[in-house]
Amino acid sequence: MTDRQKKVQPAHVSEQRDPVRYDVTLLSEDDLYLFNEGSHYRLYQKLGAHPLATPQETGTYFAVWAPDAERVFVMGDFNGWNRASHPLRSRGASGIWEGFVPGVGKGATYKYYIESRYHGYRVEKADPFAFFGEVSPRTASVVWALDYSWGDEAWMRSRHRNNSLDSPIAIYEVHLGSWMRMPEDHNRPLTYRELAPKLTEYLLRMGFTHVEFLPVMEHPFYGSWGYQATGYFAPTSRYGTPQDFMYLIDYLHQRGLGVILDWVPSHFPGDQHGLAYFDGTQLYEHADPRKGLHPDWNSRIFNYGRNEVRSFLMSSALFWLGTYHADGLRVDAVASMLYLDYSRKPGEWIPNPYGGRENLEAIGFLQRFNHDVYKEHPNIQTAAEESTACPMVSRPTHLGGLGFGLKWDMGWMHDTLIYMAYDPVYRKYRHNNLTFRMLYAFTENFVVPLSHDEVVHGKGSLLGRMSGDDWQKFANLRLLYGYMYGQPAKKLLFMGGEFGQWREWNHEESLDWHLLEYPPHAGVQQWVADLNRLYHAEPALHELDFEPHGFEWIDANDADQSVLSFLRRGRMTDDIIAVVCNFTPVPRCDYRVGVPRGGFWKEVLNSDATLYGGGGWGNWGGLEADPIPSHGRPYSLNLTLPALSTIFLKSSSVPRVDIPVG
Q1: In this structure, are strands 181-182 and 109-116 parallel, antiparallel, or unpaired?
Q2: pLDDT of 439-477, one tens digit each?
Q3: Fewer CB atoms inside 10 A, N or C side of the chain?
Q4: Is 618 within 8 Å of 608 (Cβ atoms)?
Q5: Is there a domain that residue 361 lies in?
Q6: Does one domain contain both 387 and 460?
Q7: From CA 310, how far away is CA 368, in angstroms rounded?
Q8: Boundary of a domain, candidates 502, 526, 541
Q9: Active site (catalytic) residues
Q10: Which of 487, 509, 541 is the last residue of a domain?
Q11: pLDDT band at residue 653 under the 50/70/90 scheme
């Protein structure tokens, strides 16, 4: 008997242990067929641990997939962690083992003890379908139920408007454990329920429309930020129970905020208690390391060609969208799924049957994932973190696309941050870093992201990556955000960037909220809040994000002065916003830009306003367009461009007329 077995006393059952019953099952023959076929999308209702009440007694039904096991047992605090006292029975060719253990109820901790057919392999495994797990570093699963009374009916009825591609989508990306901590309580992270009012109030004050959580799925190593998940059906217990996480989502929904979850079907860790080498074989992953081992993260790659694995992953996706009311899934590391040679040298990968580098099984899975997710939940969005030039990522599957609703524009992020790090005297030589995006901007439905990946691994903070002295760094950061919000795309900003955190993000510590005592940081925060409000209020800035009609260059070629100017349009002729960016620390007076009509153009936002920490240069709230042709347009504005600034100008009202689109 191990030390752990000696220390843990039986719980949740009477002193006399009841035998396992095999006359109780949740699995019909149809369930088994659909599972093995790869089309069972509700496995979480059948596999795992489910408290039940039979006419004779209450207990918990256990079921686990382990086709190459010789024997499988369930062990836990209810039997003193005895590996042999509670055997499960095999359901034959399905590979599933099941049994009903009387007296075991909610809160019992358990694992499966698997004796493989091969190599004498014996192992204790957490439940792949568990709804809840022990707090790390413990790794047992916990019997749990998912009863919860939701109050977000109004949101769920109307969320199609908030998630539609012509609506404003401004996403605040959050790591739950480090957004805010309790220094008076040993630097403890906030719980799900503590986060609910604090995070919601902040999101509303800042004008964000959605929050995106870094993976909340249970993960053994906190430093992975959730990207090395073992619990594909369990929110991490570090911050509370499943119901506590439901409460957080419910609270956000009731106040009009969407919730996107980061989901990782690309890889999983090799921890012994997890999915890896589950029954003495590579059950969930590819057996050949050239397909089954990720060279960058030393993690396992799912076998997308295996029917049961597809059922597992599809069930996970639909679980979070259905049971937890998530409004979207951001799929991590899609590029690593698409290409067999991703991050591999010649000879380290296996070509597909046609000799190519495309992972046809993964492509098929992603197409099926998006098709079926949108079929069941048409009012959500899926987003791909895809860093290559793979075409049609966000185009429908019936046209040959992958079917995602959105795609992260990693190229824009990379090019723009390189540009912003340059001393302005050299920026004219890198002007194409800014203009190149418009050659491909409408080939996908893009999100422009400034995510967590840009403030880790020695990259420093966004503020720290800006060029110049402190004043110029803050001005450059405001300029960057203004340029970002002028782009035809949805927006994403990682926490801390909105107030100009100096330090690189540290997942073990809270954001540096004390910086808001200083005017430059408070100014950046106010600038982001006002950008969000303008973005939400002006159809020209969001309505045609994915239509060429929504964007026009005024002047893309003023590299010598490092100035960009362009128009954003909505569906109505009245909806026109001019955006002008000056990427040098030199104010430019009498700078003329062509505009399509006369009348008054109101300066609706100016990043150089003293409110934001700027120098107060600008255009006195707006100006009349002159009947002087410029840039191929009949009118023009004679502007003052503040140093390192973005200004937004709105045309005066004219009768509203629909513009046909499409």
Answers
A1: unpaired
A2: 999 999 999 999 999 999 999 999 999 999 999 999 999
A3: C
A4: yes
A5: no
A6: yes
A7: 9
A8: 541
A9: 332, 385
A10: 541
A11: low
